[in-house]
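Hi all, posting the design record for the shared folder.

TITLE: backbone redesign
STEP: 1 of 1
STRUCTURE INPUT:
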């Protein structure tokens, strides 16, 4: 490497910014009849690529609470979010001023229990429920694909160890009280 190339490389490293932090929700539900896992994908507003709900940190909210809030605002879903992260992925984002930055998204699993009829970004995105394999084929970010695959394995393991449905044991019914005849 020439001295000039090395200097140029060092200068680029000095001006490289650390990734900007975001928090996202991998929203899922279980189909009632089959028990299959479905995940929510939505299109981004700017490029139309398939993504998950995500957003910037919010004052007074923990990371998983931000993920829950973003899922409601962007996709209209509510549910139970895990406090432990599934992992993270990075992607390039072009800001309003045209500057491109790298964003690191910490992802939290959110089991969807309800869908709102009206929400902040309704009509701005396409929202679809798909299989995990379909989600893997649609998203562009390789690290996000890997998170979906790891989530699929986690859910497979979780669902395979679920206890069988218990059949309630008949309770012993006390004999009727005898009332003496008059």
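Okay, here is what came back for every position:
SEQUENCE:
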């Amino acid at each position: 490497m020439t001295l000039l190339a090395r200097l140029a490389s060092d200068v680029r490293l000095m001006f490289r910014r650390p990734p900007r932090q975001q928090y996202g929700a991998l929203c899922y539900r279980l189909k009632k009849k089959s028990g299959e896992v479905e995940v929510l994908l939505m299109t981004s507003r700017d490029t139309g690529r398939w993504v998950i709900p995500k957003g910037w940190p919010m004052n007074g909210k923990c990371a998983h609470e931000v993920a829950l809030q973003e899922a409601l605002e962007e996709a209209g879903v509510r549910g139970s979010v895990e406090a432990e992260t599934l992992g993270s992925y990075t992607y390039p984002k072009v800001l309003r001023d045209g500057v491109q930055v790298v964003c690191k998204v910490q992802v939290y699993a959110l089991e969807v229990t309800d869908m709102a009829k009206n929400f902040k970004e309704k009509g701005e995105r396409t929202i679809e429920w798909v299989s995990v394999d379909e989600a893997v084929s649609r998203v562009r970010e390789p690290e996000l694909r890997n998170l979906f695959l790891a989530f699929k394995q986690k859910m497979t393991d979780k669902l395979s160890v679920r206890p069988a449905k218990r059949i309630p044991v008949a309770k012993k019914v006390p004999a009727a009280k005898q009332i003496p005849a008059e």
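COMMENT: The first strand starts at residue 20 and ends at 30.
Let me know if anyone wants the other runs.
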